[in-house]
Amino acid sequence: MDIFGVPIQAFLGQIMLGLVNGAFYAVLSLGLAIIFGLLRIVNFAHGAFFMAGAFVAYMAGSYFGVGYWPALFVAPVVVGIAGALFERLFLRRIYGLDPIYGLLLTFGLVLVLEGGFRVAFGSSGQPFPTPPELRGVWNLGFMILPVYRAFVIGVAIVVCLATWFVIEKTRIGAHLRAATERPELTQSFGINVPMLLTITYGAGVGLAAFAGVLAAPIQHVYPSMGSDLVIIVFAIVVIGGLGSIFGSAVTGLGLGVVEGLTKVYYSQASATVVFLVMALVLLLRPAGLFGREEN
Asked: Closest Cα partner for 258 from 246, 231, 276, 245?
């Protein structure tokens, strides 16, 4: 049986592979959307924190014998704390200024982080083993799906739903939104607004680091691994709607599938299809698919 001239096995197989890429896109864009939506900072260093998370997990295993499961939680915490320090020492000084200052500052951080890891580990990739519990494959009939890739899809969906719930449905999420929309009024209620902003940035880059650890067993760990993704992730955030948590997660998963199917029908366009979709969305709905039009 064919679907638009493509065997159904190849069609469904590309959907599954697209979901794997979409899982990384979703978690990365989720952190980026949180930082922009709540802090109004264009965090160009998001890909560098993704790479840092993978390297922290790699170093934890290589030098300290820390297994994959502890590293999956330790690396986001370490990178999140580093991000929180960066926010307190540098980003805090440019709040309220033109967004270009945040873009330039975080771009400088990218150069520092990538250069430092390149000096320490070289440009070639470092192998990262798949945890023994997640090795092997599942025969789905229409394709052979590695267990680890199925794990990545499931974890990404759970993380996206949990993050959306915390931001939109809990008291701390309400405090975060209030602190960014009406900081003076929120401060008058005794809420520590600067601390909330620091936690927000640390949580956002921690999500990027978490995605980096997930990606490490699939691809080698190398200094520019985040740079290869960050432009696509920025496009996804724009398509979903700047600052929309739900939009970034759904768009990330969806465009991963679109990118995978494009490889089947017209492989030459697979590297640009995300940007073509972004251009179309900006023409028809400048605020993004799930963004709110500003009055």
From this structure: 276
Which single residue is written with the structure tokens 């440009």?
123
CB-neighbour burial class of residue 12 (10 A; exposed 0-12, middle 13-18, buried 19+): middle
Nearest in space to 256 (alpha carbons), one of 242, 270, 269: 270
- The answer as to whether 10 is a domain residue is no
Residue tagged 């951080």 (tokens): 109
Using alpha carbons, list the distances in angstroms from residue 50 to 82, 269, 272: 13, 26, 22
Window from 73-87, 140-154, 272-286 with minimum mean pLDDT: 140-154
> pTM for this one?
0.91
Q: Is residue 36 part of a domain?
A: yes
Residue-level pLDDT at 87: 93
Closest listed residue to residue 205, CA positions, set 90, 65, 51, 17 = 51
Residue 133 pLDDT grade (very low, low, confident, very high; cuts 50, 70, 90): very high
pLDDT band at 213 (very low <50, low <70, confident <90, very high): very high
Structural domain boundaries enclosing 136? 21-224
Q: How many domains is the chain built from? A: 1
In a domain, 238, yes or no: no
DSSP secondary structure letters along 75-122: HHHHHHHHHHHHHHHTGGGGTTS-HHHHHHHHHHHHHHHHHHHHHHH-
Q: Does residue 237 fall inside a structural domain?
A: no
Q: What angle do CA 142, 148, 154 make, to 5 degrees?
A: 85
